[in-house]
Amino acid sequence: MSKKRGLSLEEKREQMLQIFYESQDFYLLKELEKLGPKKGVISQSVKDVIQTLVDDDLVLKDKIGTSVYFWSLPNCASNQLRNTYNKLESDLTSSKKWYNELLEQRENLERGREQSDEREAALEELETTELEHKKLKDELASYADNDPAALEAMKNAIDVAHSAANRWTGFRVSSRIEGTHDKQI
Protein backbone atom coordinates (compact mmCIF):
# COMPACT_ATOMS: atom_id res chain seq x y z
CA MET A 1 0.00 0.00 0.00
CA SER A 2 1.59 3.25 -1.04
CA LYS A 3 0.40 6.38 0.63
CA LYS A 4 0.65 9.62 -1.26
CA ARG A 5 2.82 12.02 0.64
CA GLY A 6 1.59 15.62 0.85
CA LEU A 7 3.67 18.61 -0.17
CA SER A 8 5.88 20.41 2.30
CA LEU A 9 5.22 24.07 3.06
CA GLU A 10 8.07 25.16 0.80
CA GLU A 11 6.73 23.02 -2.06
CA LYS A 12 3.25 24.46 -1.53
CA ARG A 13 4.69 27.96 -1.63
CA GLU A 14 6.47 27.21 -4.92
CA GLN A 15 3.31 25.76 -6.44
CA MET A 16 1.20 28.74 -5.43
CA LEU A 17 3.82 31.14 -6.81
CA GLN A 18 3.74 29.22 -10.08
CA ILE A 19 -0.01 29.94 -10.33
CA PHE A 20 0.76 33.65 -10.17
CA TYR A 21 3.78 33.53 -12.49
CA GLU A 22 2.10 31.45 -15.19
CA SER A 23 -1.00 33.64 -15.54
CA GLN A 24 0.42 37.00 -14.37
CA ASP A 25 -3.09 37.84 -13.16
CA PHE A 26 -4.73 38.82 -9.88
CA TYR A 27 -6.92 36.49 -7.84
CA LEU A 28 -9.42 36.43 -5.03
CA LEU A 29 -8.83 33.96 -2.20
CA LYS A 30 -11.77 31.82 -3.37
CA GLU A 31 -10.24 31.54 -6.83
CA LEU A 32 -6.90 30.53 -5.32
CA GLU A 33 -8.62 27.90 -3.19
CA LYS A 34 -10.05 26.43 -6.41
CA LEU A 35 -6.74 26.59 -8.31
CA GLY A 36 -4.62 25.24 -5.44
CA PRO A 37 -5.78 21.60 -5.64
CA LYS A 38 -4.90 21.55 -9.36
CA LYS A 39 -1.28 22.21 -8.32
CA GLY A 40 -1.36 19.69 -5.46
CA VAL A 41 -2.09 22.15 -2.63
CA ILE A 42 -5.18 21.24 -0.62
CA SER A 43 -7.74 24.02 -0.43
CA GLN A 44 -7.67 24.16 3.38
CA SER A 45 -4.02 25.14 3.41
CA VAL A 46 -4.15 27.65 0.53
CA LYS A 47 -4.99 30.58 2.84
CA ASP A 48 -2.05 29.83 5.15
CA VAL A 49 0.35 29.36 2.25
CA ILE A 50 -0.76 32.62 0.63
CA GLN A 51 -0.39 34.44 3.95
CA THR A 52 3.20 33.21 4.31
CA LEU A 53 3.93 34.44 0.78
CA VAL A 54 2.37 37.82 1.60
CA ASP A 55 4.42 38.01 4.81
CA ASP A 56 7.60 37.36 2.80
CA ASP A 57 6.57 39.99 0.21
CA LEU A 58 6.53 37.44 -2.59
CA VAL A 59 2.80 38.02 -3.16
CA LEU A 60 1.17 41.40 -2.95
CA LYS A 61 -2.25 41.90 -1.39
CA ASP A 62 -4.67 44.79 -1.69
CA LYS A 63 -8.20 45.32 -0.45
CA ILE A 64 -10.45 46.96 -2.99
CA GLY A 65 -13.94 47.53 -1.67
CA THR A 66 -14.95 44.36 0.10
CA SER A 67 -12.66 42.09 -1.94
CA VAL A 68 -9.07 41.21 -1.22
CA TYR A 69 -6.92 40.66 -4.33
CA PHE A 70 -3.61 38.81 -4.49
CA TRP A 71 -1.03 39.04 -7.26
CA SER A 72 2.61 38.47 -8.00
CA LEU A 73 4.72 38.96 -11.09
CA PRO A 74 8.07 37.31 -11.79
CA ASN A 75 9.85 40.65 -12.05
CA CYS A 76 8.44 41.70 -8.64
CA ALA A 77 10.19 38.76 -7.00
CA SER A 78 13.46 39.49 -8.76
CA ASN A 79 13.19 43.17 -7.80
CA GLN A 80 12.58 42.20 -4.21
CA LEU A 81 15.57 39.85 -4.24
CA ARG A 82 17.72 42.56 -5.79
CA ASN A 83 16.62 45.06 -3.13
CA THR A 84 17.29 42.55 -0.38
CA TYR A 85 20.72 41.82 -1.84
CA ASN A 86 21.56 45.53 -2.02
CA LYS A 87 20.41 46.08 1.56
CA LEU A 88 22.49 43.16 2.80
CA GLU A 89 25.51 44.42 0.86
CA SER A 90 25.20 47.87 2.43
CA ASP A 91 24.77 46.28 5.88
CA LEU A 92 27.87 44.19 5.29
CA THR A 93 29.86 47.23 4.20
CA SER A 94 28.80 49.25 7.24
CA SER A 95 29.52 46.31 9.55
CA LYS A 96 33.02 45.92 8.10
CA LYS A 97 33.62 49.65 8.53
CA TRP A 98 32.41 49.49 12.15
CA TYR A 99 34.60 46.42 12.78
CA ASN A 100 37.68 48.22 11.41
CA GLU A 101 36.90 51.26 13.57
CA LEU A 102 36.67 49.03 16.64
CA LEU A 103 40.00 47.38 15.80
CA GLU A 104 41.61 50.79 15.42
CA GLN A 105 40.09 51.97 18.70
CA ARG A 106 41.39 48.85 20.46
CA GLU A 107 44.88 49.46 19.09
CA ASN A 108 44.76 53.07 20.27
CA LEU A 109 43.71 51.96 23.75
CA GLU A 110 46.45 49.34 23.93
CA ARG A 111 49.23 51.82 23.02
CA GLY A 112 49.53 53.30 26.52
CA ARG A 113 48.95 50.01 28.29
CA GLU A 114 51.97 47.91 27.37
CA GLN A 115 53.11 45.62 30.16
CA SER A 116 55.97 47.17 32.11
CA ASP A 117 57.26 47.33 35.67
CA GLU A 118 55.98 50.89 36.04
CA ARG A 119 52.49 49.89 34.91
CA GLU A 120 52.34 46.91 37.24
CA ALA A 121 53.51 49.05 40.17
CA ALA A 122 50.89 51.69 39.34
CA LEU A 123 48.16 49.04 39.12
CA GLU A 124 49.17 47.59 42.50
CA GLU A 125 49.15 51.08 44.03
CA LEU A 126 45.72 51.72 42.52
CA GLU A 127 44.38 48.49 44.00
CA THR A 128 45.69 49.26 47.49
CA THR A 129 44.31 52.80 47.31
CA GLU A 130 40.90 51.47 46.26
CA LEU A 131 40.89 48.99 49.16
CA GLU A 132 41.80 51.76 51.61
CA HIS A 133 39.07 54.00 50.13
CA LYS A 134 36.50 51.22 50.59
CA LYS A 135 37.62 50.65 54.17
CA LEU A 136 37.31 54.37 54.96
CA LYS A 137 33.85 54.52 53.37
CA ASP A 138 32.71 51.61 55.55
CA GLU A 139 34.08 53.33 58.66
CA LEU A 140 32.31 56.57 57.69
CA ALA A 141 29.05 54.67 57.25
CA SER A 142 29.37 53.29 60.78
CA TYR A 143 29.55 56.88 62.10
CA ALA A 144 26.47 57.97 60.17
CA ASP A 145 24.26 57.27 63.20
CA ASN A 146 26.06 60.04 65.12
CA ASP A 147 25.85 62.63 62.36
CA PRO A 148 24.84 66.00 63.91
CA ALA A 149 22.77 67.01 60.86
CA ALA A 150 20.85 63.73 60.94
CA LEU A 151 20.24 64.08 64.71
CA GLU A 152 18.96 67.65 64.23
CA ALA A 153 16.60 66.54 61.45
CA MET A 154 15.30 63.74 63.67
CA LYS A 155 14.66 66.20 66.55
CA ASN A 156 12.73 68.51 64.21
CA ALA A 157 10.63 65.59 62.93
CA ILE A 158 9.83 64.57 66.53
CA ASP A 159 8.75 68.14 67.39
CA VAL A 160 6.48 68.30 64.32
CA ALA A 161 4.91 64.92 65.11
CA HIS A 162 4.42 65.92 68.78
CA SER A 163 2.71 69.21 67.91
CA ALA A 164 0.50 67.48 65.32
CA ALA A 165 -0.55 64.85 67.86
CA ASN A 166 -1.38 67.56 70.42
CA ARG A 167 -3.33 69.52 67.83
CA TRP A 168 -5.49 66.53 66.89
CA THR A 169 -6.03 65.19 70.39
CA GLY A 170 -6.67 68.68 71.70
CA PHE A 171 -9.29 69.24 69.00
CA ARG A 172 -11.10 66.05 69.90
CA VAL A 173 -10.98 66.80 73.64
CA SER A 174 -12.20 70.39 73.29
CA SER A 175 -15.07 69.40 71.00
CA ARG A 176 -16.33 66.85 73.56
CA ILE A 177 -16.17 69.41 76.34
CA GLU A 178 -18.24 71.87 74.36
CA GLY A 179 -20.88 69.21 73.75
CA THR A 180 -20.53 68.92 69.98
CA HIS A 181 -19.46 65.32 70.43
CA ASP A 182 -16.96 64.67 67.62
CA LYS A 183 -18.52 67.11 65.16
CA GLN A 184 -16.22 69.36 63.23
CA ILE A 185 -16.62 73.04 63.88
Q: Helical segment tally?
A: 6
Which H/E pattern describes the elements?
Answer: HEHHEEHHH
Mean pLDDT: 82
Strand order, sheet with most strands: 1-3-2
Stretches where pLDDT falls below 50 for ≥5 residues?
A: 172-177
N-C termini distance:
98 Å
Indicate the structural class: mainly alpha
> What is the 3D form?
elongated
Helix content: 55-70%
Proportion of strand residues: 5-15%
Radius of gyration: 40 Å
Tally of extended strands?
3
Biggest sheet character? 3 strands, antiparallel
What does this entry look like structurally?
The protein is mainly alpha-helical and 185 residues long. α1 packs across α3. About 3% of the residues have low confidence.
Summary of the model, kept short:
This protein has 185 residues and is mainly alpha-helical.
Keywords:
185 residues, mainly alpha, 6 helices
Lay out the secondary structure.
Blueprint: H1 9-23, E1 26-28, H2 29-35, H3 43-55, E2 60-64, E3 67-71, H4 74-111, H5 117-142, H6 148-177
Antiparallel strand pairs: 1-3, 2-3
